[in-house]
Write a structure and sequence with these properties.
The protein is mostly helical and 217 residues long. The chain contains 4 helices and no strands. It is rod-shaped, with a radius of gyration of 73 Å.
């Protein structure tokens, strides 16, 4: 019994090994038949992934180039702004160091001059009043001289008419009284002579005398 069982065990082992070899050979045949198809699929997926990644890389490169150009433009703009700010700060510092003290000194001098002028204003006002009085006096004298010259250049007849009939003659009251008195006397004499002449003419006309005979007589 033991010898039979011992013989049966190697047989079983040999059968199991043969069946294992058959199954492995069958699997190898199956894997060998599926390997090219899987490789093609893997290559296609790898190429798709590579093309997609390449496309993404190109998009990323374009975005990076655009961002780089924008960053360069922003950098240039910032440099310009910084230079202008630096220039402005330099000018402000120069003005604070040089211009502001000069302006303050000038303002102090102007304030001192204004204070002196304020102190001198009353005196200047009095001088202006004196100058105005002198100017008015000179103007009045000039007008008097002009009227005197006009009066001297006026004819005698017009002078007499002005003295007798108007109160605007540039002569003294004595002259006015004298000239008007003489004019009144002359006027009265002329009227008296005219009255005598008229009365003689009327009498001669009444007596029907001829003027020549009356005068001869």
């Amino acid at each position: 019994m033991s010898s039979g069982s011992a013989n049966s065990e190697p047989n079983r082992r040999s059968k199991s090994s043969e069946s294992g070899d058959l199954s492995s050979s069958h699997e190898r045949d199956q894997t060998s038949s599926w390997e090219p198809r899987n490789l093609c699929l893997a290559l296609e997926s790898a190429s798709r992934r590579a093309s997609l990644q390449e496309r993404q890389i190109k998009d990323l490169e374009s975005k990076l180039a655009l961002d780089l150009s924008n960053s360069r433009a922003i950098e240039n703009l910032l440099q310009e702004v910084f230079s202008s700010v630096q220039h402005t700060s330099d000018r402000a510092q120069f003005a604070a160091l040089n211009t502001v003290p000069h302006v303050e000194h000038t303002l102090d001098e102007d304030l001192a001059v204004l204070e002196e002028l304020e102190e001198q204003l009353p005196e200047i006002g009095a001088q202006i009043c004196d100058i105005r009085k002198v100017y008015d006096g000179g103007r009045a004298r000039a007008l008097d001289l002009m009227s005197s010259l006009e009066w001297l250049n006026t004819p005698i007849s017009q002078k007499l008419r002005t003295i007798i009939f108007t109160p605007n003659a540039p002569v003294s009251n004595r002259w006015k009284v004298a000239v008007r008195s003489i004019f009144a006397l002359v006027f009265c004499a002329c009227m008296w002579i005219a009255w005598i002449t008229l009365r003689g003419a009327v009498r001669a006309h009444r007596q029907r005398l001829v003027w020549g005979e009356r005068l001869m007589s």
